[in-house]
Design a protein that fits this description.
binds flavin-adenine dinucleotide; EC 3.13.1.4; 383 residues; alpha+beta; oxidoreductase; Butyryl-CoA Dehydrogenase, subunit A, domain 2; FAD; Butyryl-CoA Dehydrogenase, subunit A, domain 3; 3 domains; Acyl-CoA_Oxase/DH_mid-dom; acyl-CoA dehydrogenase activity; 3-stranded mixed β-sheet
């Protein structure tokens, strides 16, 4: 498949690049050091319409494709992954609701995601159900016009600030994927307790949380699942949406790697040792060339996977390949770029050590790289 950005996409990318470099870059260290959410960045992103890039215009969004959306996210990730994550998350939940929610819910909620008035966490992982995601035990039991939710979630990003939680729950007695659906739980629901997880390695401008549900009652109209959730393929269906989320992890990793690479390249042009610039040393030049090759490969894979989804032909295997290649590449690249700065790269006055910590998250989230390799192997062997 031939892939080339059109003039509108180039314009969109360049505008995001300008914003990232001129506004977000210098503030990025603060969110990490103080462990605070980049509130002012979110406000700006909402004003500029970045929080509704992939949302249908009938709900106030820009109606753009995933390629366009992630071009913006990539540019922001070059300087600040915590801020890039805001655009990513704010575009994901509306897509799930737009695909699986009833029209009344879409019309009521999605415009508020675009404006930033609402945020939604995705509460899927449980202590005993991480990679084995179909093994969740949180239950949603129908009582009259309500569902009663009991169970526990862990690692819920933005769980401490989201107005709504998209909770994966077991609606029926069956085991495995069948009977798993999703339901929106408002943050102030009686019986819901949220506890922030401490000592996080990176992306400290976003928090992960445990959620505890003790007989939490939610109106039945909050269900976000096609058909009868008791007997649904609720677990399987949203996975098509998660194809994009998965590649999104790859694109964010790509952005961080490119950001680190650009810093290293610029430093190598001014730092000399043994009477020679680093950029003139053959061993280091090849290191940079090798990194460039890997970055180019990741970019091609990620945008090919996103273009396939935009074209209505999602390729789950390609999405997994892109996610693994880009995130593994980014782990190596950020470390090697940090090395290029010698001792200076080890200190927080430069962003390298933050980039190394931040990017670590992306081999785990969106389905670990090991589970992606299982999916790729299943594709190779037919099961
Ligand atoms: C920063 C962060 C943010 C997150 N945000 C969210 C969120 O918003 N919402 C949410 O629901 N979850 C979230 N998660 C959870 C994340 O999705 C899980 O951590 C991930 O799915 C892995 O589950 P686990 O941690 O229980 O590891 P486990 O599943 O216990 O895996 C442990 C190790 O074994 C490997 N492994 C497991 N099974 C296999 C297998 N069959 N073959 C080979 N290797 C295997 C894994 O790859 C991993 O290396 C987040 C996690 C992190 C770190």
């Amino acid at each position: 498949m031939h892939f080339e950005l059109n003039p509108q996409q180039v314009e969109l990318r360049d505008a995001a690049r300008k914003l990232a470099q001129e506004v977000f870059k210098d503030k990025a260290a603060r969110w990490d050091r103080e462990e605070i959410f980049p509130e002012e960045n979110k406000k700006l992103l909402c004003e500029l319409g970045y929080t509704g890039l992939s949302v249908d215009p009938q709900y106030g969004g820009a109606g753009l494709g995933l390629v366009d959306t992630y071009l913006v996210i990539e540019e922001i990730a070059k300087v600040d992954l915590a801020t890039a994550l805001i655009v990513h998350e704010q575009n994901v939940s509306p897509r799930i609701i737009a695909t699986y929610g009833p029209e009344a819910m879409r019309a009521k909620l999605i415009p508020k995601f675009v404006s930033g008035e609402l945020e939604c966490s995705i509460a899927w992982t449980e202590p005993q159900a991480g990679s084995d995601a179909a093994n969740i035990s949180t239950t949603a039991v129908r009582e009259g016009d309500e569902y009663v939710i009991n169970g526990q979630k862990v690692f819920t990003t933005y769980g401490d600030r989201a107005h709504l939680h998209l909770v994966y729950a077991r609606f029926g007695p069956s085991k495995g994927a069948r009977g798993v659906g999703t339901i929106l739980v408002p943050k102030d629901s009686p019986g819901l307790t949220v506890r922030k997880l401490p000592y996080k390695m990176g992306v400290r401008g976003a928090s992960e949380n445990e959620l505890f549900f003790d007989n939490v009652r939610v109106p039945a109209e909050n269900v976000v699942t096609l058909g009868d959730p008791q007997n649904s393929k609720g677990f399987v269906a949203p996975l098509t949406v998660y194809n994009a989320t998965r590649v999104g992890m790859g694109v964010m990793a790509l952005g961080v790697a490119e950001g680190a690479f650009e810093l290293a390249r610029d430093y190598m042009k001014v730092r000399s040792q043994f009477g020679q610039l680093l950029s003139e040393m053959q061993g280091l030049r090849w290191l940079m060339a090798d990194m460039w090759i890997e970055i180019e490969a990741a970019r091609s894979l990620c945008y090919r996977a996103l273009a396939a989804i935009d074209a209505g032909k999602p390729d789950p295997c390609l999405s997994s390949v892109a996610k693994v290649q880009a995130t593994e590449m980014a782990l190596k690249t950020t470390l090697q770029c940090q090395q290029m700065f010698g001792g200076y790269g080890y200190f927080g006055l430069l962003p390298l050590e933050r980039m190394v910590r931040d990017v670590r998250m992306l081999t785990i989230t969106g389905g670990t790289n090991q589970t992606q390799k299982n999916a790729i192997a299943n594709h190779i062997f037919g099961s």
